[in-house]
Amino acid sequence: MKVVYLNLRKPQGNILRIILLFLIPACISFTACRSNKKAGGSSTDTTAITGEYSPVSTFAPNVPEAKNNAKPKKVIVEIEVVEKVMKLADGVDYTFWTFGGKVPGPFIRVHEGDEVELHLNNNANNKMPHNIDLHAVSGPGGGAEATMTVPGHSSVFRFRALNPGLFVYHCATAPVGMHIANGMYGLILVDPKDGLPYADKEFYLMQGEFYTTGKNGEPGLQPFDMDKAIKEQPEYVVFNGSVGSTTGDNALHAKVGDRVRIYIGNAGPNLVSSFHVIGQIFDKVYVEGGSEINHNVATTLIPAGGGEIVEFICKEPGTFNIVDHSIFRAFNQGALAQLVVTGPADKNIYSGKQADQFYYPPIQDEKKDKPAVEPAAAPEPSFADRFKDGQTLFASNCSSCHQTTGLGLPGSFPPLAKSDFLMSRQDMGIGVVLHGINNEAITVNGKHYQGVMPNLSLTDDQVASILTYVRNSWGNKSPGIKASDVKKVRNQ
Amino acid sequence: MKTVSTLLMMICTLIPLKHYGEMPAVHRGMPARNAAMVSIPGGSYRPFLHRKDQPAAVKIHPFSLDVNAVTNGEFLDFVKANPKWARSKISPLFADAGYLKQWTGDFEIGDDKIINSPVTNVSWFAADAYARWKGKRLPTQAEWEYAAAAAPVGMQKGARLTRIILAWYDHPNPVILPPVQSTYKNAYGLYDMHGLIWEWVEDFNSVIIQGNSGTNADSFSCAAGSLGSVNKEDYAAFMRFAFREGLQARYAINGLGFRCARDLNRFD
Amino acid sequence: MKTNRILLGLATLTLLSCHKSAVIKSTLCCARDRAAITATTPSPAVGNNSVYQLTGSWTDQHEKQLTLSKLQGHPQIVAMIFTHCAFVCPRVVEKMKAIRDSLPAAVRNQVGGVLVSFDPDRDTPAQLRSYATQRQLDDHWELLKGNSDQVRELSMVLNVKYQKLSGGSFSHTGNIYILDGNGNIVQSVDGLGGSIGSAVSTLNRLASR
Fold this sequence. Notes:
The complex is a heterotrimer. Chain A is an alpha/beta fold.
């Protein structure tokens, strides 16, 4: 409450003073209200910054924890460029150009609305000039134009993290492809205002190609090959900078029941990735690292120079291979990582192998596809023809079990040679050949057999020929079997 | 006023004629040795970064260029004769904190192995002062690029200089810089134009890649025109021009040295 | 009023013609009288980061010879231009004028403007004089011509990029630099875009030292 003193001796002066006395506090409170309204707005919101901090950046496969600041802060990020020789594969070395001394570079994690002050430091021992382009930046070159830095020097610039999402950063000094191909890339995550939902495990993977003069596996220090890079024919496609970086002892770990979130970047420089975790289904995919969420996806596309966030719950223990499903890259060029999940198994979800059975090869007869229909009134072949046909048919359909010797396999397949079971049967064995035997216990020549003889779906004619042969071989003697005999048994 | 200056100018132009073949006497403390130079014949140079409104080729007048880069030993002679360029005395305006850090003292190189290696960690100002002390100057960017484009003597058929340079980029800086003349000689008789160190040129700050000024001011031109490279295949050149783009004259950098040029006297 | 101005102008001309090596300015202007510096060592008074460590001799629009250290003692607003520049330099100069005009009168009198030409071939003292008249640059302004080596050297110190084009014009960056009384670069501002506010407050601060 303002108390206004009136000076009755100067009326005009009074009025002026009153007006001023009202106006000044009114203006102050009005602007104060307006500035409060500004807080918490759209993506072009440039709210006032409160406080500053230097975030912890981590190297792959680790991800820093989210800060989840209520209000935007100033974030100071220091990145050093280091050119160094490191292992690309067993016996293979490469001169990498790196952010932070590793490939990929550090995982930068900030919050939507933060003001990022980025210091790009070029180590004095380096040879080359470098800069940085972060895809999270709205501004020319993504920061590249402000950060061209020669060795021994440092560039600083600031940008506002206006958009949430997962973004790639990389060196953009010409020729850009060469700088990326040599390993100058990493990921920056801008957490959305309200943060991402909880995940038990978060991992950082980044795919990239390497173009070496020597073929894949050729040992020694391998130079970069510009021609192969232009032709998009890499020798290596790897996760996290080298073959085997995240396999075996270096595999990722999780437990059954964990919700796993993988921030997966694709640096290129050329190839698009078909990202898949063998044996897992992503229940959530933040498409291209943005705000759109897809569900129940097994394989997702990651553009070159882009990223993706995938989530899944580990339901079963085991080793899960993580691949680029352009599959020769995974198994021949190194695009393979692993996740080892430990914990109790649930056979309802995945049973593992339940049975190991003998596999009977299919019938090698061109008449197999035709229905077993007798040609009308075909003349009955002679005994000799039947025997000869039967021998051929026996060889292809029966001999694998009963053997060409007719002796079968003791304990497994009964003999046919001098078989009392065969020769004494009322139906002359026709029923057995027509219908097979399904685990029925039988006795042949005093020996017990219990097994499966498949139903081979043969025609009457074929059955007749086989039985003619079988019942007249290896010491067996009997009259020939006719097709009509088979038909009679079939129709019983 | 004007007469005085005109007179002075006339005298100055006469001096080179009078002292043909000798160093101008104005420079004190002449060094005992003189780096060998070769004459580069005149010709035409196509600037790598080309503006559409500019002619595609620039005329290069004949000039001489040092056969190899200035060495630590030669630079030591200069510093001894001109102590204000010693490491502990130099003004921060003219060199940054890395100036001559490979030496063990103001007047001591320290490591015998690098006496004949190119001097590095010298700023443009220091390089320019050395050149003038020798009665020479720094080569212009056009002169340097023109001289550096010549192929190595005995280069294999089918091989390309660009690939040789890219291979140099591929290897990290050696801890001990090899001596001058340890890489290839080119068709002009110049050693190590590529493959040993980066080299200062007189007008490195004439490179204005659109939008790459690095300061809060936009770069622009008083005559409108856009800048493009003449040869998009020349990846090595992109890197070299990008390097120049990031330089400031006071920077002392591990892999950056220089060699000197001189106008060719009309009687040469 | 007008008589005063004429008398002042006459006095200036007389003084200028008398002294060849020292720079004489009207009392309104900015530089101190100093003997020309011929030593190659930097003057201890100017300090390590001072632009005035450059020892070259320049000619101004009044045909006077001076080294940059003559500007010592007062804050300076500096830019590199050339008079035949049609589009950009005029705007840079206008911005420099606007900065000076925004200063309180007492401060403005202490602050000098310096324009250094890229173009010694065409920007003779007479041409510079004519330019100063056209742009209404009073005696607080120094327009300097030097040889091409000096120009390159100064551009290196100021971190100005430029290139001479065929046809005689120049492609160049357009920052404006604020130097303190000792010649240290305190601030650089965009010559084309942006406000003049921070430059003005910097100069106010420098003048109050």
